[in-house]
Design brief:
The protein contains 14 helices and twelve strands. By secondary structure, the protein is α/β, with parallel strands linked by helices. The chain has three domains: about 100 residues, NadA-like (Rossmann fold, 3-Layer(aba) Sandwich); about 110 residues, Rossmann fold; about 80 residues, Rossmann fold (3-Layer(aba) Sandwich). Helix 1 runs parallel beside helix 13 and helix 3 runs parallel beside helix 4. Bound molecules: 1,3-dihydroxyacetonephosphate and iron/sulfur cluster. 1,3-dihydroxyacetonephosphate binds next to loops.
Amino acid sequence: MNSKNLEDKIKKLKEKEKAMILAHNYQRPEVQLIADFIGDSLDLARTSAKADAELIVFAGVNFMAEMAAMLNPEKTVVIPDPEARCPMAAQLPATTVREAKKKYPDAAVVLYVNTLAEAKAESDVACTSANSPQVVNALDEDTVLFGPDRNLAWFVQRRSDKHIIPLPENGYCYVHKMFTPADISLLKERYPDAEVLAHPECDPEVQQLATHICSTSQMLVRAKASPAKRFIIATEIGLVERLRREFPTKEFIPALETAICEQMKKHTLEKVYLALRDKKNVVRVPPRVAKRARVTIERMLEISGRAARD
Ligand code: 13P
Ligand code: SF4
């Protein structure tokens, strides 16, 4: 089936099933283009929480689809390819969180949304790359166990007086680890007029070379608002493709062409179609886990919403 046929079939099925397709900014361009909504983790959690649909097709990695399922217990959430699993989320098992809580009984536990539901269920509040300092600074505790991304923990520590303890010690995203300060410096020399937008999952040495450190959707906001005409982008390539599509008069230079998240790219148009047609790969979180993990996401949305209103 060619992609035009597939797109038509997906559109018809979407209407018939009262479905909504949500896609993360790193999805393949053709998947982004068929989606009803494209965003970062925070946008996707917010949008799924108020989704007016009976079926949600979630084109993102597993922890994102789990969040949508937990926020929508009465709806069916399907993931086109169940193998789209974020390796960073797997770096923090719930047992590690439980052990750390015993060691630091007075600490708050803040977990990046890039964690599995079982780990979230052991935490106090979730956060995303778009709101992590806000969430941490809204807490009463002075010590915060923060995981799994060590680079995001470093980013938060620079914006908070609290004592941040990374959990595990060296959690990382293999895609954002690919960016090096040498590559960024070279690009900055070649394009001195460019702004450098880097994701907080990048190493500290890369973050220190950035003009702005942003979540993926915050990069879109910055690219639109900035007077600059050129940007060096240090995050996954899918976001660069979206930036080029949405701001054709500006130039976006990937900090590394090969920064590709294989797990995000597992979803194809064909798999989106099959998920819709067969309601395949329903995302299920055990109710006992979902009940506790949902509270941490709702608390994050509440803190984030409050900060946006202030
Ligand atoms: P964003 O929430 O900034 O889109 O980040 C999600 C992610 O997985 C980055 O690697
Ligand atoms: Fe996980 Fe990194 Fe892929 Fe984001 S880019 S989903 S953190 S592996």
